[in-house]
Amino acid sequence: MKHNDSAIASLSTPLSRPAHPHAGLLWGSLGVLAFSFTVPFTRVAVRDLEPLLVTGGRAVIAGTLAALLLLATRSRRPTRTEWLRLLCVAGGVVLGFPLFTSLALREVPASHAAVVVGLLPAVTAAFTVVRTREHVGPRFWACALLGAAVVTAFVARTSGGLGHLGAADLWLLAAVVTCAIGYTEGGLLSRSLGSWQTICWGLVLSLPVLAPLTLVSLVAHPPHAAATSWAAFAYLSVISMFLGFFAWYRGLAIGPMAHVSQVQLVQPLLSLTWAAIVLGERLDPTIGIAALAVIGCAWFAVRARSGAQRGGSASEQTGLAQEPSDLGAVDAPHEPLAQGRRDGERELLAVAEPRTCGEQ
Predict the structure, then answer these.
(1) Fewest 10 Å CB contacts: which of 170, 216, 307, 340?
(2) If we measure between CA atoms, which residue out of 266, 269, 262 comes closest to residue 301?
(3) Residue 248 phi/psi, 5° resolution?
(4) Residue 324: cis peptide before it, omega within 30 degrees of 0
(5) 352 forms bridges with which residues in the sheet?
(6) What are the two backbone dihedrals, phi and then psi, of residue 17, each rounded to the nearest 5 degrees?
(7) Of 313, 320, 319, 311, which is closest to residue 339 (Cα–Cα)?
(8) What φ, ψ does residue 352 adopt, rounded to 5°?
């Protein structure tokens, strides 16, 4: 095999054991930083562009980049079961979240949307715990619920009370639920398929649906947008929809997933900051107090460990624990999830395949 072939093969190798004990949190934080610009830039894009074009167009651009990368690295194709699980990823993070937030951001400011999206970590953690049967202690749930309560208070204050939720808030809640499903399934799938491979295949899977819809939008509503709208659209296509997921799914795959997902509690605060700087939106002084509260919840949540995890194996503490055997068969036993040190010992960590989204 040629040297170049070896290099290409290394790019498509699934997740290996991290050397840094907090690698999952570091990768997850990088992904959150990239995603924190999504809401403000979506607000900029939909000023001049149709929501369907913003949703489909960014997916088509990112999907094209993903297809080229998969071809260049000669990545293996997903199995039939993995294709079914990729439907959850594509439906949640490629279609659902972008479309619902684009519709909502035509009616509400970015700061309002950032607050509602702040519920995403708690919802993701709930799906994660149910999906993977992770054991998390009461302190973790207390911090997660407190963080959710803080962002819920933001929603109530911004909309004039929870009883006055408008269509935009419902779109945003739908975005949170669909995205949480995509994050959870994508994080699990990336353990065997690979972190960046997961989002790439999800994007490719969405092309047959979103490419025609994008074309219809272009014909029905020819775009006439300012340069700032096109720049925001470019960021959404390349960073939010493509490169950001490289870091985010790798962080979730390293895990522990329920704890890494809580880092996203900081995302609405970052988005609020960008909304003030980029869009000139006025921020209420109480946001400073809420910011400290949410960051504190995120910090305590990611440090929380249940007694079972502290007493568990090293693989469980790094989030690479084997799934319960009654969840299904191993997707690709010939592709180990991680390799041991290069001292002659090789430890195979096989992850049993969870149920697909259609079986839940």
Answers:
(1) 307
(2) 262
(3) -65, -45
(4) no
(5) 330
(6) -65, 130
(7) 320
(8) -65, 140
Tell me how far CA of residue 64 lies from CA of 194, 210, 212, in angstroms: 19, 12, 14
- For 203, phi and psi rounded to 5 degrees? -65, -45
For residue 28, what pLDDT is reported? 87
| Phi, psi dihedral angles at 292 (to 5 degrees) | -60, -40
The residues that bridge with 330 in the sheet, in sequence order, are 352
How far is residue 206's CA from residue 45's CA, in Å, rounded to a whole number?
A: 21
Tell whether the model's pLDDT for residue 262 goes beyond 90.
no
Domain-wise residue ranges, the chain? 20-323
299 vs 50, 284, 293, CA distance in Å?
38, 23, 10
Structure pTM? 0.73
Q: Which own/partner contact pairs does 104-108 have at CB distance under 8 Å and 24+ positions apart?
A: 104/167, 104/168, 104/169, 104/171, 104/172, 104/175, 105/39, 105/42, 105/43, 105/46, 105/168, 106/46, 106/51, 106/168, 107/166, 107/167, 107/168, 108/166, 108/168, 108/169, 108/172
DSSP 322: P
CA distance 256 to 263: 12
Would you say 273 and 115 are in contact if contact means Cβ atoms under 8 Å apart?
no
Phi, psi of 30 (to 5 degrees): -65, -40
Look at 2 and 343; give whichever has higher pLDDT: 2
Helix (H, G, I), strand (E, B) or coil at 173: helix
Longest dimension (CA), the chain: 65
